Amino acid sequence: MTSAKITPGPDAHSAFRTGMVAATLAAFVAIAACYWAGLMTLPLLGFTLLLGIPIYLVFAASALSVWLGFDKDATDLRPVYRERKQS
Fold first, then answer.
1. Would you say residue 55 lies in a domain?
2. Containing domain of residue 50, as a range?
3. Is residue 27 part of a domain?
4. What is the Cα–Cα distance from 43 to 55, expressed in whole angstroms?
5. What is the DSSP annotation of 56-72?
6. 3 versus 85: which is more confidently predicted?
7. Dihedral Cα 77, 82, 83, 86, nearest 10 deg
8. How far apart are CA 56 and CA 24, in angstroms?
9. What is the pTM of this model?
10. Burial classification of residue 21, based on how many CB atoms lie within 10 Å of its CB (0-12 exposed, 13-18 middle, 19 or more buried)
11. Could you give the number of structural domains in the chain?
12. Residues near 8 by beta carbon (within 8 Å), at least 6 away in sequence
C-alpha cells in the first residue's frame, strides 16, 4: 500500500514565511540581548551576524520545511530526458 502524496498548500507557504520571520527576529533579539548584557564582544557580534545567522536560518528552514511537508525524498525524483537534435 502506497502512502498518499499530499502537496503543501498556500497555508503551508504562509506558515513557512511566518516561521522564518519569527526565527529571524528571535535570533536578532537573542544576539542583541547577549550583546547588551555584555556576553558578546564587538568582534564576536560581527562573526555571529555574518556566519552564525545564515547557518541558523538554514537549519530553521530545514526544520520548518520538514514539519510543513515541503521535504522531498528519493521517491519524488523522476528521470529527465533530453530530446536529441535531429540532423
1. yes
2. 40-67
3. no
4. 18
5. HHHHHHHHHHHHHT---
6. 85
7. -160
8. 9
9. 0.73
10. exposed
11. 1
12. 68, 69, 70
